[in-house]
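Input/output pair, single chain:
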Amino acid sequence: MKSRLDDIIDDLDQCIKDDVKVSSQIFGLATSSLQKNQEFLEKLQEKTVTTSSKDSSSLFFSETHPITEQYLRKKYKNYQEAYQFYHKNYGITCKRGWNNLFKAINNLSSKQKTEHLDDRVNDLENKVKKLEETINILFERIKKE
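Output:
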C-alpha cells in the first residue's frame, strides 16, 4: 500500500515533469520566434541595401518591387485592400481606381516612404526586446524553482 507521503512524492514528480515540459515548450516557441524575427530583419536589411543610394526609398518602393497593378494585385488581392494599406500607413487619399492610386503612391516623398519602414523596424526591434526580457524572466523563475 502506498502511504500519503508516496502519493505526495508522486504528485511532486508529476508537477516537475509537467513544469519541464511547459518550460521546454516556452523555450522552443521563444527560440523559433527570435529566429524568425532575426531572419525577417536580415531580409529587410538586405532589401534596403539593394535600393539605390540616390533614392532612399523603402522596401515597398525599391527597384526590385516596382509599383504596378500586377504587383499590387498579387500583394493585396484587390484594389480595396491595396488602398486601405496605403491609406492607413501613408495617409494616401485618392479617387477610386488603380491609376489614381498609382499617382498618389508615386507622389509620396522619399521621407514619407522611409518613415513607414523605420517605424516597422523599430516596432519589431521593440517586440524582440520584450520577448527576450520575458524569456529571461521565465528562465529566472525556472532556475529558482
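Residues 4-144 form one domain. DSSP finds five helices and no strands in the chain.
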